[in-house]
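Students often ask why inverse folding is considered easier than folding. One informal answer: many sequences map to the same fold, so there is more than one right answer. In these notes we will look at a single instance of the problem. The structure comes first.
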């Protein structure tokens, strides 16, 4: 199934009342930057969802740096943006891909079937000289009826089982860059290394200048994984693993889960080993 929408399609359907657009622009280095950039320029009709305020919950001892948001609050925000379970929703960011994919995964988790990521993000949209605005839209509040798909979310206990070798049919994928995977450097988390047994598939290798590679190219990235394998993807805090999750689904893999807490959650348990 195709989860990617091109800018030409969005331009053509910009005024469709059944389509909602979500701007997920964010900077991990400056948490206010995404909102500021949205207020300057965004795709007409786009609502803004903040990674830390809307797409993540409160940070605590466990759960990682970007834990699952409070579902009731997240649904309320969706409803205020005029989104119900039948709305076609397009998410985008500045072109990095990870923040839009995080939103996409969350809606998939809520059982929403008509959610897509804008290929190339705002950068690609601007390259096409397509319209932008600073106007903040308002919508009539919708009613969103979730059908939570728990099969998309891997728990720490599941990851521990796979890591320990008790589940030989499952694969752990570390989505971070190779140097962090190898434990050679760790710019964010308190410990360096990886979850034992994980293989490395850096998330950005599934994109080319913000555009997702074609399904055949994604399949080539994952040729060492059997289609019948159950796959759990993780990264540092469950954000950059989302593009890998999307890429795996685009490549035809059916049994894919996201370990949302990821490495930052794993290391919060003193008994968990690090490789």
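Output (designed amino acids):
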């Amino acid at each position: 199934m195709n989860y990617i929408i091109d800018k030409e399609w969005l331009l053509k359907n910009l005024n469709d009342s059944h389509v909602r657009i979500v701007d997920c622009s964010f900077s991990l280095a400056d948490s206010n930057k995404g909102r500021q950039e949205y207020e300057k320029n965004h795709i007409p009709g786009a609502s803004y969802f903040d990674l830390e305020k809307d797409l993540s919950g409160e940070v605590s001892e466990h759960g990682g740096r970007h834990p699952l948001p409070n579902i009731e609050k997240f649904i309320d925000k969706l409803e205020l943006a005029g989104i119900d379970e039948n709305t076609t929703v397009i998410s985008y960011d500045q072109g990095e891909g990870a923040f839009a994919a995080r939103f996409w995964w969350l809606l998939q988790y809520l059982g929403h079937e008509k959610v897509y990521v804008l290929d190339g993000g705002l950068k690609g949209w601007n390259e096409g000289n397509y319209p932008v605005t600073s106007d903040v839209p308002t919508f009539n509040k919708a009613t969103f009826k979730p059908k939570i798909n728990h099969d998309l979310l891997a728990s720490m206990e599941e990851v521990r089982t796979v890591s320990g070798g008790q589940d030989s049919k499952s694969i752990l994928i570390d989505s971070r860059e190779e140097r962090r995977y190898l434990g050679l450097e760790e710019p964010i988390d308190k410990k360096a290394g990886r979850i034992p047994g994980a293989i490395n598939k850096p998330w950005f290798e599934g994109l080319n200048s913000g555009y997702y590679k074609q399904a055949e190219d994604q399949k080539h990235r994952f040729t060492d994984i059997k289609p019948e394998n159950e796959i759990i993807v993780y990264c540092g805090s469950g954000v950059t693993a989302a593009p890998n999750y999307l890429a795996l689904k685009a490549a035809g893999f059916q049994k894919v889960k996201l370990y949302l807490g990821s490495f930052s959650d794993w290391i919060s348990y003193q008994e968990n080993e690090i490789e």
